[in-house]
Design brief:
single chain; two-stranded antiparallel sheet; mainly alpha; 5 helices
């Protein structure tokens, strides 16, 4: 399932704070990974770092050059929050499964089905 929400200015702090908390299973949020044509064009590769995420969502490249007309302005909409979720049946199965089955479910559901 896909849920889509509008992001507001400063919302990147929510995402970077999640990574520092014991959000899922006291293990923290999984590290993000840059991918896609936009990331390649901005030379963003590998693990998402807080400074690069903050700069990008504020409208700047990693060197501080503005990427959009309203870079850094409070009125800027940094993007859209896309949340992909497994069906409830997968969540229920995971919650009742043994450790090996949980790892298998997680490794299968974590694989992107396409990359650009």
């Amino acid at each position: 399932m896909l849920s889509i929400g509008k992001m507001g200015a400063g919302q990147e702090l929510y995402y970077t704070a999640l990574a520092a908390e014991n959000y899922y299973l006291a293990g923290g949020e999984p590290l993000g990974e840059w991918w896609g044509r936009g990331a390649n064009k901005l030379q963003l590769r590998g693990t998402v770092e807080e400074k690069d995420l903050t700069a990008t969502l504020s409208g700047f490249d990693r060197d501080g050059k503005g990427l959009v007309q309203n870079a850094g302005k409070k009125s800027r909409r940094p993007g859209w929050d896309l949340t992909f979720s497994c069906p409830k049946s997968v969540s229920v199965l995971w919650s009742q499964a043994d450790a090996d089955t949980r790892r298998e479910i997680q490794s299968t559901s974590a694989r992107p089905t396409c990359r650009t």
